[in-house]
Amino acid sequence: MPTVKPAIMNNLNKNFARLKPVGIREFDYRASAIPGIIKLTLGEPDFNVPDAMKEAAINSIKDNDSHYAPGNGTAALRKAIAHFMADRYGLNYDPASEIAVTIGATEGIYASLATVTNPGDEVLIATPTFPLYGAITTLLGSSPVEINTCDDGFVLTPARLKQALADHPLAKALVLNYPSNPTGVTYTRDQVKALAGAVKDTNLIVIADEIYAELVYNDQHTSIAEFIPGQTLVLNGASKSHAMTGYRISFITGPKELMGPVSATHAMMVTAASDPAMAAATAAFATDEGKQATQKMKAAYQKRRDFLVAALRKLGFEITIPNGAFYIFAKLPAKFGEDDVKFATDLAQNGKVAVIPGSYFGAGGQGHLRISYATSLDNIKAAVERIKHFVEED
């Protein structure tokens, strides 16, 4: 086994030392080793990829579609994405200059932040939220500024945004994830419009991670790009809506003036996505089968959500109803205090149910648990029985 020369370690990117531990994967890994554990941890859909998407990937392979694709993605996929965005959200993007296909939303987040920030900049991030936004911002040499939305029902209000801007007038970007991971909370049309009005008076670039946009239950998703298209980069993809997490196909859309440098950053990172995966995603975004598959999954998720919310409330958990994604962000019963890491650890070890501590998601997450219902209803029912026994025996 090679051993690194000690002095070399002093030459690494110094921003690594500024990173806060993310913890989600590590917690899941430890919990997975517990015999008989029921996992409600990761945002991993339990559905299989729809047949139309599988067949498209297989046909791509059979047709020897195995060469370098254009950096922004195949023309067919970009055209399908343009159709998808117009059909679902009323947004119009030029497939030639305003769409870039990325290797999952993770790469899209990195490419967007790397393009729009410089070392020393500040990035506003509404929290609780997926910790990767802050980690990437830090690694790039910028500073994440958390805006705690806990007291506002986990929604960023114009007033709170204006206060953050007053405190951080040099902020360059705002990261907005909705429907939210971890809360499942999303924004009404009026809330989006009001927030867009506050952003419009600034030079902020909004990085709108809307990867869960197809999983909105009692309303239609409204993209903030509808109101401020010239200031918004939208991230979306096939991972959550079509259970295609392993295919790693997402995309960024925005005005061509921004998308030129974003696309260049993306191409320098990965060159391009794979042809078979893009063929599958083309079928996901362009066909009725893709749309119907999402609707079927969404109906199942909503049934699971309704059962889980009712069951956990009976056990003393406080829950803001999640109207999107497939997570519940549950506040611990009062008798357990605010130590969500201890509760989640004890629940995994003694109750045999794994969930993610809410404090891993930044300001406003302490005292909460993120509970994923991207698993079968039978698993969820069994988990609830175990949680019931755990909280009542404690």
Automatic annotation (TrEMBL):
Signal peptide: none annotated. GO terms for molecular function: transaminase activity. Keywords: Aminotransferase, Pyridoxal phosphate, Transferase. Its cofactor is pyridoxal 5'-phosphate. The keyword Transferase applies. Residues 37-387 form the Aminotransferase class I/classII large domain. Pfam families: Aminotran_1_2. It comes from the Bacteria. CDD domains: AAT_like. Belongs to the class-I pyridoxal-phosphate-dependent aminotransferase family. PANTHER family: AMINOTRANSFERASE, ASPARTATE AMINOTRANSFERASE. This is Aminotransferase class I/II-fold pyridoxal phosphate-dependent enzyme. It comes from Limosilactobacillus pontis.
